[in-house]
Amino acid sequence: MDTFDNELLLFDRIKLIKDTVAKYGEENFYISFSGGKDSTVLHYLIDEAIPNNKIPRVFINTGIEYIDLVKHVKELAKNENRIIVYNAGVNIKRMLTEKGYPFKSKEHSRKLSTYQNSSLCKSVKVYMSGIKSDGTTSRFACPKILKYQFDDQFSIKISDKCCDELKKKTAKRYEKESGRKIGIIGLRMSEGGQRANKPNCVVFDSKNTLVRFKPLNPLTNEFVEWYIERNNIKLCKLYYPPYNFTRTGCKGCPFAIGLDEQLEVMDRLMPNERKQCEILWKPIYDEYRRIGYRLKTNEQKKLF
User: Which of 222, 213, 199 is nearest to 17 (CA)?
Assistant: First the structure.
């Protein structure tokens, strides 16, 4: 995609943002600001579309963000009064024990949680076999190496609720307190997973009320990099050498496909945070290593 194509796409996004915010009222919106690459692009794009807007940028501090990312957001907040640091206040270890740990992906964790709580229902059978009722192949199917988990002998409690407990419920609390009910979020389809199946930029609830707005949804990685360079945007230090992170979500999250590489960087440059990950996600890391999935079997030996 060349500069002309990017400029056309930018024009389209600016118009969409202007029209959507004007239709539903600026006072009803807030930006879900993670401090990462996409939400930073979102922050600048909203300002380009609506100069002098007063839309709050809400950073939810769950307690497992990278220390440098939290520092970056707080530094920005010194000169940007629209940035609000909002603490989740959740005991993460207790929450994981009670609700369940994430494993592999949200889809896998949801299906495994369904099995653990209500046995082998239809959706779980499709996930296990990879074949839908009409005979077509399901896009989401359980890897052979993980099918052993759908058995009563597998004792680790799994669920996809971690993000809900730490982020979505905290966001709902902010919405209730502020009266701003529409979150502008920086999700993009090109990030893959379940996001790839959600092409709409606007999300409505059962009452046909707008609850989420995703103006970045169709944007590619190439566009994001172009926009950052075009506007000379400074990101968190974790995106630059020697870290070179591509994502800055919850540290050590078992959902991360590149978890092994992420932990190796942390081992060299953030050893204390690396140890925190080992303690927090221990049941999952141990299982990953035991079956040779995502983590090297001998990785833990050098930590303590």
Answer: 213
